Structure formats: C-alpha cells, structure tokens
Amino acid sequence: MTSIKKALLIPAAALLFIGTAQADDTMDINRIDHILERTSAYGFTYLEEIEIKRPGQAEVEGWLDDEWNAEVRFDLENGDTLSEKRERLITGAWGMSDEEVRSAFELARSEGMTTFEEIAIDESGMIDIEGRDANGRELEIRLRQGAAQISHIERD
Length: 156
Hints:
Layout: H1 3-24, E1 27-28, H2 32-42, E2 46-54, E3 57-63, E4 68-75, E5 81-88, H3 98-110, E6 113-121, E7 126-133, E8 138-144, E9 152-155
Antiparallel strand pairs: 1-6, 2-3, 2-6, 3-4, 4-5, 6-7, 7-8, 8-9
C-alpha cells in the first residue's frame, strides 16, 4: 500500500468510528414514554435535562420536589439506577413536566426528528432538542416552554 493510500485510509477509518460512536448516543424519539415512565417511578416532578449517554442509558437531571434536585443515570433496558446524586437547593423546582416533554418531542417529530441525543431547558424556559432525522442529518430544535411552534431549527 502506498503512503498516500495509508494517509487517506487512517482518517477515513477515524471518521467511520466517530460516526458510529455518535449514532450509539441516540435513542428513537418514540421511546420517550419509556424514559418518562422511569423518571416518574423514580420520583421526578420536573425535568431539566434528559441525555442519552450510550445505548440503553439515559442521564436525567431534574427535581424530586421543591427542595431536592437529582441527577440520575438509568439503564433503560432493565430499569436499574446506575448512579445518582441528590442535592438540596433553595432555588425551588423548575423545568418541564412529562407532558411538556412529550409536546416538545411532538413538535420535533413534525420537523422530521426520528432519534434524539438530548433535551434540555434553561431557566428562561427555552427548550433545546438535539437529534437526527431519518437520513442521519443532525437537527437542533429550539422552542419556548408552552409554545405550540418551534422558534429555531438548525439542520446540519
């Protein structure tokens, strides 16, 4: 093999590996109810972030009540709690209800999103969803909490 072929082969293999790794950190958007069942059973009342960490695992941050904030990693296949951190805060609960998460995903689905990596809300009420369409193209969707339409879409 010539040195030019080797020089081209190594970056191509690296890109293939990176593309495969990214695909593993997504979940079918239709499985959001499965995740919300786990978060509800754990005791979450408001969700700040749901992030897919690897196939079958999600890390969730949110509120258990008005004082306790938690960050928990779930194994979605067997229901195990893999890690958890709780912190008592005086700021008070905020975030998305289960129904607001479902509504945000309905809007994302209407724009072609089929898998997601993360959904998060900031303290101002802006929700960001990162995912992919059926062709594997990245989608980033932004909307205001409670809104019936999307504020911004970025397609890569």
